[in-house]
Structures are given as C-alpha cells and as structure tokens.
Amino acid sequence: MKYAVVLAAAVILVVSTVSISPAQPPAPPAAAQAPTQSDEKTNITIEVSRVQLLFTVSDKKGRFVTNLSKDDFEVFEAKKPQSIVEFNAETNLPLRLAILIDTSNSIRERFKFQQEAATDFVNTVIREHEDKAVVVSFDTAAEFFVNVTDTTEKLGKAIHGLRPGGGTALYDAVFFACRDKLLQDQPKFKYRHAMVIISDGDDNQSRWTREQALEMAHKADTVIYAISTNRSGIEGDGDKVLKYFADQTGGQVFFPFKAQDLAQDFENIANELRHQYNVLYRPEPLKADGLYHPVDVKVRNRKDLIVRARHGYYAPSM
Q1: Burial (CB count within 10 angstroms: exposed 0-12, middle 13-18, buried 19+), residue 304
Q2: Is residue 98 located within the same domain as residue 247?
C-alpha cells in the first residue's frame, strides 16, 4: 500500500489584494467550508510511501549542530522504531514563507511595531530569485495582501500598506495560508515551508478551530514561528496559542519589547531555516487512514542535544 499525497501546481504571482474569506456571510463559502477528503484530492496526485521530516539540532546553549550523520539519529512513530531510508544535511533549501500580520483592533497601538518587525524579517531572510513569500493580513477575515513573490520591495510595500481594524481571525489565516499557498509547492521535499505570525495570538472571529489550523500546517509540512506583540511582560492566552503552534510544528516564539530587539530573533530564525537535517522513512506499518501519527526524532546517546521537529503528520486517506 502506498500513501496518496495531493500536490498542486505552483502558484502564480499576483500583486493585488485577494480576499480569502468574506466577513459575516450567511453561510460559509467554498473556501470556508469544513475540509473533506475530496477537497484535498484534487489537482496533481502522486504515490509515495515515505514520510519526510525536516528538523534542527542544537546544544543547550542554542548553537546549531551540523556535523551529525544518519547513524546518529533515531526515528519513532507511535513509539515504534523506524528505518531511515534517506538522510541529508540540508543547509540551503529554497524557502516558501507565509508572513501573517495581525491587523485587528486589538493590536492597533502596536501596529507600527508589527510593520517594522515584518519588514525587518523580509529584508533579513528572503533571498531574491531563490525564496518566495506571501503576505497575509487578518482581522475579521484573512486576506492575501500580496501573493507569492521573491521581491522584497513588493513585500515591504504590501506590509506598510496594511491598516488595522476589525476582529481577529488568526486560525483562518493559518489554515488558508497553508492550504491555498504553502501546500501548493511541489515536490514538497525541495522546499522548506515556514510561517511567521506577528500577533498577540488572540482569536475571536475564525470559523476554523485551532486544531483544524494546526492540522493544515502539518499537511503543508510547515514550521511556525511567532513574534508576540504582547509587551506587558505577562503571558496571556494568546501567547499560549502562539507557543502551541510553534511547539507542535517545531518552531519558536519570540517576545520582543520593541522592533529593535528583533535583530537577533530574525537572525536565529534565518539560521535555523538554513541549518536543518532532512530524514525520510517508510512507516512500518503503512497506514493510509487519514489520521494523525505521532513522530519523535532523537539523537542517539546525546542527551545534551535538542531536536526541534514537528511532532507528527497526517496520513492521506485511500
């Protein structure tokens, strides 16, 4: 038995604003309906029997460890050891990024800070002609404010053109960015999918749940990084949401007090995206059941090293 994985054709560059989900419609449109198997079995379908894991390894001081080999790692699925069939130290994979910017009323006082943070990230991380990114704003609804592009100038103009107002549909933004953009790149193993959320983490408007958004992030093999705009020094419920997304996908959360503090944070994200290992394994037993399968990656006999990876994957349904 082999898994069926849905991969769509490459996205086309569009610079104009594209609405993902209209505000307050009487019934959910097609883009906001609950996911079904048929939704995710369109376009190009290929057969695979391997699971890919991209991850980083660091010591307890946060320094990346890049000299490990295949024999240094162990992979467990549902606590059962798995055989690694392919291993690479990937340091230069092209990036496919989604930059999610909170434009709700709840962050109005911190909005300029968010714009500065997002612009700094684009200028720090994006390599033109190699990497591509999409800017997604979210308040009452989520919008692709600038579509997939490798031009930092276009990304920067889009970010500074955003205006705050409305509720907060964070989960919808995560869901749509993963499903409609990041999931479309093929083949997925040639890219490093990542998302950066700049927000206070609060959500009061989404139709999709936190778990549905996380599921779509897993299906798009997306690691989530978050920059909290909460500068109170007290962890809020929104910060817990951001931590949850990051932890489950192998990312990190940062809590800067001002935009100038972000330089080191952005450097850390950029370095992490360029210093990862790539492992592929054939699950035993193979199960095309559409369910979530927990995965754990460990370094053999090295308790001093920390592996940051997603905690599992969703198997396709046959």
Answers
A1: exposed
A2: yes
Strand positions, DSSP E, the chain: 3-7, 18-19, 44-48, 51-59, 73-77, 80-82, 84-90, 95-102, 132-138, 142-149, 192-199, 222-228, 253-254, 276-281, 292-299, 305-308, 312-314
248 sits in which H/E element: helix 237-249
Q: Please give the model's pTM, rounded to 2 decimal places.
A: 0.78
Task: For residue 171, give the 3-state DSSP assignment.
Answer: helix
Here the tokens at position 176 are 């749509």
**Cβ partners under 8 Å of residue 176, min gap 6:** 20, 21, 31, 136, 142, 144
Range of the domain at 71: 44-87+275-314
Structural domain count, the chain:
2
Q: In 17-110, where does DSSP find H-type helix?
A: none
The pLDDT averaged over each successive group of 10 residues in the chain (318 residues) is 34 37 38 40 45 90 90 96 90 85 81 81 84 90 76 86 86 95 77 90 94 94 90 88 96 81 76 85 88 94 92 84
